From TrEMBL:
The keyword Acetylation does not apply. CDD domains: 7tmA_FMRFamide_R-like (cd14978). GO terms for molecular function: G protein-coupled peptide receptor activity. It is found in: Membrane. The keyword Transmembrane applies. This is FMRFamide receptor. The chain crosses the membrane at residues 36-58, 70-94, 114-142, 163-181, 216-242, 272-299, 311-329.
Length: 371
């Protein structure tokens, strides 16, 4: 049900003959966007995988290692797991083969298996990401109320974040077990050829299996809507703390320059995290509503959800890839560490290579003269 929307043209997941066709606008949009979706997704995934590696290597440095940054490292790793399988999927189903093509070369049993793994992995990683976002908002809210002071308190917070991140990864994987059991490969025989795809769940019909219905409803509520609601609650509290309470605290601390600087730095970090939460809400909340409607409204899945599937995939991929840009824009410390670790290091390597080449040339000249 979630990114990647790999069932959009698969056998068994095509338009339902008992339902009316999608509106002409949605159908035209689906046909247009599917033509550019594959290439655009490959670019976004390649960029996102590289930049999330940057995020992990920078935020896990000893001088950058804080409880908040460890949450962001866990988020970056989950984003990488989402984007890595999407690249070969996009290449095969959108670039090598036309998105509208239905052929045995496109829908082999091997690619259907890969599709199934991608769907289950994406559902899991998205659940991990959104609950890490919730954990981050709760942790930041508690941190604003009771600021951490001293190296021992900081180390204790880091250990707590490691434990919470591990729990989120394990619990999200276990929570997706019904999803793993619901999605199955289906074989469709057409003449002398066989096509393989994901089984149609027949949502919002009399043929919907109870386990499939319960799985879709629980996924929409527990992996989408509830986390979004919690982010709104704690994000709103953070916004209030940064706005009204923050101004009062800065006025009180204005006499102590170091405390005032620390307060300003914490406010900037909180604003950056608020933007991360807003991006989650923009991406995940509409998906939760659409998934819920797909399970409850007859014909909605095939007529609305499926035509918008590629767009939702792409928005989710952009959200996975954009955090590096956000950190560079909103965090001077992150930006400086990136320059020091990657740009200046590259410049130094080029300088050393130039010196080495010059030394080799000088040595060859001496040998030639001596002979």
């Amino acid at each position: 049900m979630d990114t990647p929307n790999v069932t959009s043209a698969a056998p068994g997941m095509g338009p339902d003959m008992n339902n009316p066709a999608p509106s002409s606008f949605l159908l035209a949009f689906q046909q247009w966007f599917s033509g550019v979706h594959g290439y655009a997704s490959i670019i976004v995934c390649a960029f996102g995988i590289c930049t999330n590696v940057f995020n992990i290597t920078i935020l896990s440095r000893r001088d950058m290692r804080t409880a908040t940054n460890l949450f962001l490292c866990g988020l970056a790793f989950s984003d990488i797991l989402t984007m890595m399988p999407y690249m070969p999927f996009a290449i095969h189903f959108y670039c090598i083969h036309d998105p509208a093509e239905v052929s045995p070369e496109k829908y082999t049993e091997g690619w259907a298996t890969f599709m199934l793994i991608s769907v289950n992995l994406a559902a899991t990683t998205h659940t991990i990401s959104i609950w890490l976002g919730v954990s981050l908002s709760v942790f930041r809210f508690m941190q604003m109320r009771t600021p951490v002071r001293g190296p021992q308190a900081k180390q204790r917070s880091i250990q707590q974040v490691k434990a919470v991140t591990l729990v989120v990864y394990v619990a999200s994987t276990l929570a997706m077990v019904p999803n793993y059991l619901t999605n199955k490969i289906e074989r469709v025989d057409i003449g002398n050829t066989s096509l393989y795809g994901l089984r149609d769940l027949k949502l919002a019909t009399n043929e919907t299996e109870p386990i499939a219905f319960a799985n879709v409803i629980s996924y929409a509520i527990l992996a989408k809507l509830v986390p979004c609601a919690l982010m709104v609650i704690f994000g709103g509290s953070l916004l209030y703390s940064v706005g009204i309470k923050g101004k009062k605290r800065r006025r009180r601390l204005s006499s102590t320059n170091s405390n005032c600087k620390r307060e300003v730095r914490q406010s900037k970090t909180t604003r950056m995290l608020l933007v991360v939460m807003i991006l989650f809400l923009v991406t995940e909340f509409p998906q939760g509503i659409l998934i819920l409607a797909s399970a409850l409204v007859s014909g909605f899945y095939h007529n609305v959800y499926m035509p918008l599937g590629d767009l939702m995939d792409f928005i989710a991929l952009v959200n996975n890839a954009i955090n590096f840009v956000l950190y560079c824009i909103m965090s001077q410390q992150f930006r400086q560490r990136f320059i020091d670790m990657y740009l200046k290091r590259t410049s130094r390597l080029k300088h050393f290579e130039k010196i080495s080449l010059n030394n080799q040339s000088f040595t060859r000249t001496i040998v030639t003269d001596a002979s």
